[in-house]
Amino acid sequence: MADKKTIGIDLGHETLKYVSLSITSDKPQIENYKSADLNLAVDADDSAWREAVVSVLNSWKSEKLIQPEDELYITAPNDQVLIRALKIKTEDIKTQLEQEADKQIPVPLNSVDWDCVTVGEEDDQSHLVLAAVKKDVVENIISILAEAGLEANSIDCGAMAIGNVYLNASGGDAEIPAVILNIGATASDLVIVDGKKVWIRTLPVTGKSIVSSVSKNLNMSEDEARKAISTQIDLTAPAGEESPITKNVRATMSRLVMEITRSLTFFKSQIGGEKPQKILVCGGYSNIPGLTGFLSGRLKIEASGLDVFQAFGKSDVENSYLYPQALGCALAGAELVPYSINILPKGVQLQQSLNRKKVWIAASAYIFAAIFIALFAIVTLKSKDIKEQAEIAGSEVSRVSSLSSKINKIQKKIDKKQLEVDEIHRVILSRDLYVKALQDISKVIPSNMWIEGIENITFGDIYEKESLESDDSGTIIVDEKSELYNRPVRLLIRGGYYGDWIEEMPKVKKELAKIPGFAGFTQRRLIKEKKYSTFELDVDLDTNYNDKPDLADIKESKSRKGRSGRR
Asked: What distance in Å separates the CA atoms of residue 19 and residue 30, rounded to the nearest whole number?
């Protein structure tokens, strides 16, 4: 019988992946694995995705793949996870980590759940990987599982799970440095593993961007484009002999090669790592015909598919490229990997810890009672004073009952505290709903444009700048401690574009204007490179949907109050 069982589930946008491990004497075995397509329409919204996920989880429960008591380790959807590589002086980690996290995360720190892990050290510096997910996304995952009658022991970062899988297969230390490229539907990650070091970067080329490019340029529906990409192309076809669809996908993949090359250069300069000797591909869109040959030729590195089941004695597993994240989660749950990230809210983690202690206390109480009863029976056989022994037994049973009563009181306190935590979450979520608008940007930008970063600009930032430039803030007076001072009113978007940006900008402006809560943008900076341009845009928010920037609303309101006060 197995000592332990852990289940890893990868919550993808198009496919759910499941891997269960049984561990006997610290030796893991693959017990089962499965994937399920969600079969969503192209224009499906978040509620449709949620309904499909719950349906799959319930079907897996009915098949006995998942039991309510099983330990579940889940990945957050990759496109919802913000990943940053940090370098902090080792002795300053405890005091500087939260401050550094606040700098790196482009939304308020209290609007996300986050975790960080040290993945390498060099001299007096520590290299860390930080993963953050917006609180409403985490709450949605918890809610989805609850609807299916399940609970997550941990919410992992999919990219870190992939790195852990490779390290586990390498015995915890990768002597041969490798690049792992995960191409998912809505997010792609580059994971570099060198020795025990892990470095992660999110790439702008995704399965959906490949499909979208083919669909737009070759006048196909997205379903037709998706099928054609996996069956009708060969990226290794000689130049001049390739089909139009192959040529289109090859152009997109060339952009991916450029991003990989940039990442390898940065890794070597910042981390001091060795040049990887191989590249392994995985993810739902890694099965593009000729992809590994194309990457080998362009990067001059041996490329092949990542088969996560080989290390467990399983070969010829169909679609093995789908499972690295799910397997990595299950291995982390079994504590068989070097790095662990848990994005579950700290309040939920605390409650789970208290629940485990509660079970231990209750078990101890019942064991104590059973031991006492056994001893009492032995003593009774040798004692003539049965009444005295009965009184002693009664006293001990009363103590056990009292302990059970205390346990119930502790549980009531836990339940009350959880209600308080839920209320705090509700307040935070309602205040930070504007962040959801950021998700819509990727849906409207063209395939040859990419976003490098999005930064919140608060009213206080603009107020201070205008006050310094004019030496007079006019009738507007804002207290730094007020909620208004920290209210985001503008987004600074950094990105780049292949082609004529001046010609394309009006189209992009028109598309961005369609996003609810956006009031238009102005161009802050444009730098033309040899083959592309980089830009910075100031996008004004309109959270009250009155077709005027929030900044203008605030200034108008404050100026009106100032004039009223003077009367």
From this structure: 7
CA distance 102 to 81: 15
Q: How far apart are CA 480 and CA 457, in angstroms?
A: 15
Paired sense of beta strands 302-305 and 449-458, if any:
unpaired
Same domain, residue pair 231 and 319: yes
Helix (H, G, I), strand (E, B) or coil at 41: coil
What share of the chain has pLDDT > 90, as a percent?
A: 36
Q: 3-51, pLDDT tens digit by residue?
A: 789 999 999 999 999 999 998 876 889 999 999 999 988 788 889 999 9
Which CATH number is 36's domain given?
A: 3.30.420.40
**pLDDT for 309-358, tens place per residue?**
988 888 778 899 999 999 999 999 999 999 999 998 887 877 766 665 55
The pair of structure tokens assigned to 306 is 């990542």
Going by C-beta distance under 8 Å and a sequence separation of 6 or more, which residues neighbour residue 37?
14, 15
Closest CA to 446 of 213, 211, 222: 213
| 388 token code pair | 């005295």
Residue whose token pair is 């529906």: 221
Domain with 234 in it: 4-344
What is the per-residue DSSP string for 115-140? EEEEEEEETTEEEEEEEEEEHHHHHH
Give the separation between CA 537 and CA 525, rounded to whole angstroms.
Answer: 7
Amino acid at 408: N
Q: How far is CA 451 from CA 120, 322, 454, in A?
A: 28, 26, 8
Strand partners, 207: none
Phi-psi region of 474 (alpha: psi -120 to 50; beta: other; left: phi over 0): left
Q: Tokens 């009915």 appear where?
A: 62
Residues 269-274: what's their mean pLDDT? Answer: 72
Considering only CA atoms, give the Rg of the chain.
Answer: 28
pTM: 0.64
Alpha-carbon gap, residue 370 to 292, rounded angstroms: 63
Contact status, residue 78 vs residue 161, Cβ threshold 8 Å: no
Same-domain pairing of 440 and 483: yes
The vertex-396 CA angle with 390 and 402, nearest 5°, equals: 135
Q: Is the pLDDT of residue 152 over 80?
A: yes
Structural domain ending residue among the three candidates 391, 426, 461: 426
User: Can you state the angle between helices 459-470 and 550-566, rounded to 10 degrees?
Assistant: 60
| CB contact at 8 A, 250 and 298 | no
Indicate the number of domains in the chain.
Answer: 3
CA distance 556 to 329: 52
- DSSP labels for 311-370? GGT--S-TTGGG-HHHHHHHHHHTT-SS-----S-HHHHHHHHHHHHHHHHHHHHHHHHH
Same domain, 326 and 380: no
- Count of positions (residues) in the chain: 567
Farthest CA pair distance, the chain:
104
Residue 427, pLDDT > 50, answer: no
Question: How far apart (Å, rounded) are the C-alpha atoms in residues 121 and 367?
Answer: 46
- CATH code of residue 470: 3.30.70
Tokens 């339940």: give the residue: 415
Question: pLDDT category, 567, cuts 50, 70, 90?
Answer: very low
Q: For residue 201, what are its two tokens?
A: 């970067």
